[in-house]
Write a structure and sequence with these properties.
The complex is a heterodimer of chains A (about 140) and B (about 200). By secondary structure, chain A is α/β, with parallel strands linked by helices. Chain A has a single domain, classed as Phosphotransferase system, mannose-type IIA component (Rossmann fold). Helices cover about 45% and strands about 15% of the residues of chain A. In chain A, α1 links the parallel β1 and β2. In chain A, α4 runs antiparallel to α5. Chain A is globular, with a radius of gyration of 13 Å. With about 200 residues, chain B is an all-alpha fold. Chain B is about 70% helix and about 0% strand. Chain B contains seven helices and two strands, in the order βααααβααα. A two-stranded antiparallel sheet of chain B has the order 1-2. The chains are: A alpha/beta (about 140), B mainly alpha (about 200). Chains A and B meet through α3 of A and α3, α4 and α5 of B.
Chain lengths: ~140, ~200
């Protein structure tokens, strides 16, 4: 538990639509009305497919309530850009983590867990655990 | 000794070279990637040149650190964080000295290449930019800028028979064989621009 502050969730996708739709989906599946701060960071600033470090940094700042920020990404440059920003040191809020998780399932698990007031480590573990759920 | 002007020339020469070769880079990226490598790098290095003119950093380390940050924020594809990390780590390794020796630069560039390998998880032979950069750094240690250029070009050409093990091209499996890697090709341009900046 972290003083009632909730972990923020950032969803980074190559596509603005994917990022915002997964945010909506996760919020919906978590049970409407959850107050978890979630921000999508999808596509480039020009609205094309790609990754924008500015959109990621702005999204992370917007969901930072002091309890840490969990960042989930789709693939390729989304992963590399977040890692490069984390290596920079001062581009993302203190206690921001790239979470190794499947994008959709991980986002749902992260939001549901964050809604309980769980800390960043618990949110990260829940999202990562989504990898272990086999569909066949 | 290499001063901030040398590193500005390097970035300007890289930008000019990427401008000239953008179509070829994108063409190489079409069969095994998402056909944006040339345009992405062109946008990135043009932004680097503009920001270096505007902010006029006055040490080698500051030039490369600023260039790296600019690439991360403007490229929009995987080459942004990869080239951005290469330049930024190299710049950080150079510290705040006003001039650096070729040997100091070679050591710093090796730290930059190591950081790229850590970031992307690629090793030599994976058909990536690393296949041009590692031979270039090795040659730089022994033979200077001209030798580094030759080594990077040979490294890029040698990616053709390799099967991609990292990035978008790796999804193609054996079908990635027979194509020269776009990232290794642009890395060879970056190293060639180094020799150009040195007047070699």
């Amino acid at each position: 538990m972290s003083d009632g502050k909730q972990v923020g969730i950032v969803l980074v996708s190559h596509s603005a639509e994917v990022a915002s739709s997964v945010a909506e989906l996760a919020r919906g599946l978590a049970g409407g009305g959850v107050s978890v701060p979630i921000a999508p960071a999808g596509g480039t600033e020009g609205g094309e497919l790609g990754t924008s470090s500015e959109l990621i940094a702005a999204a992370a700042a917007s969901v930072d309530r002091g309890a840490g920020v969990a960042v989930l990404t789709d693939l390729g440059s989304a992963v590399l850009t977040v890692k490069a920003l984390l290596a920079e040191g001062d581009e993302l809020p203190y206690n921001t983590r790239l979470v190794d998780a499947p994008f959709v399932e991980g986002a749902v698990a992260a939001v549901v867990t964050a809604a309980t007031g769980a800390d960043l480590a618990a949110v990260e573990a829940a999202a990562a655990e989504a990898y272990t759920y086999r569909k066949v | 000794m290499l001063d901030a002007d040398f590193f500005r020339r390097w970035m300007a020469a890289t930008s000019a070279s990427v401008d000239r070769e953008a179509e070829r880079l994108t063409a190489l990226d079409s069969p095994i990637g998402d056909a944006d490598h040339g345009s992405n790098l062109q946008r990135g290095f043009r932004a680097v040149t503009a920001t270096l003119e505007k902010e006029a950093p006055d040490t080698p380390g500051a030039v490369l650190t600023l260039a790296g940050r600019q690439l991360i924020s403007t490229v929009g594809g995987a080459s942004g964080p990869l080239y951005g990390t290469l330049l930024r780590r190299t710049g950080k390794a150079l510290g705040d000295a006003g001039e650096v020796s070729e040997a100091q630069f070679a050591e710093a560039l090796r730290a930059g290449v190591d950081a790229v390998m850590t970031l992307g998880g690629a090793a030599p032979g994976d058909k990536t930019m690393i296949d041009a950069l590692v031979p270039a750094v090795d040659a730089l240690d022994e033979g200077g800028f001209a030798a580094a250029r030759t080594a990077a070009e040979e490294g890029a050409l040698a990616t053709t028979p390799l099967q991609a093990r990292k990035g978008r091209a790796s999804y193609l499996g054996e079908r990635s064989i027979g194509h020269q890697d776009p990232g290794a090709t642009s890395s060879a341009l970056l190293v060639a621009a180094l020799a150009e900046a040195a007047g070699e």
